[in-house]
Amino acid sequence: MTISVLDRQHAADVQPAPRVPLGVLHDAAATVDQDLLPCRINDAELWFAESPTDVEHAKNLCTDCPVQALCLDGALERREPWGVWGGELFLQGVVIPRKRPRGRPRKNQDGGAAA
Ligand code: SF4
Q: Is 55 in the pocket of ligand 1 (CB under 6 A)?
């Protein structure tokens, strides 16, 4: 048995069944004016952007969303693999504080790579 098989089996063991399905969020979003949902009136790619600046912009836009709390609860329950949901950035099912820019790690002042 390879490590990847073990990882998949372990992941299947620990992931709970989603209690807030995406359909619930869609139903809730359908009851509010679509013009009040930032991810509907802006470019949706912003919520899955590569640029840390764009990701922070999406997080800020979510703060005005009328379904933010439900969106965040659902994303936590579903362990969203990535993207901005409910004003938080998700990566591999957990909230992370910020997106790291692409590229090599910064070097220390002495010329070595940062740990
Ligand atoms: S809180 Fe959810 S539904 Fe609202 S704008 Fe953000 S991602 Fe979209």
A: no
Q: How far is the CA of 73 from the centre of ligand 1 (A)?
A: 11
In a domain, 6, yes or no: no
**pLDDT mean over 50-78:** 95
**Number of domains the chain contains:** 1
CA dist 112 and 63 (Å) reads 40
Predicted TM-score of the model (pTM):
0.72
Give the HSE-up count for residue 62: Cα atoms under 13 Å, Cβ half-sphere. Answer: 21
Whole-number Å distance, alpha carbon 96 to ligand 1 midpoint, is 17
Q: Is 5 annotated as a binding residue?
A: no
Residue 8 domain-assigned (yes or no): no
How many other CB atoms are found less than 10 A from the CB of residue 67? 22
Structural domain boundaries enclosing 61: 19-96
- Check residue 88 and report its DSSP letter: E
Is 63 within the bounds of a domain? yes
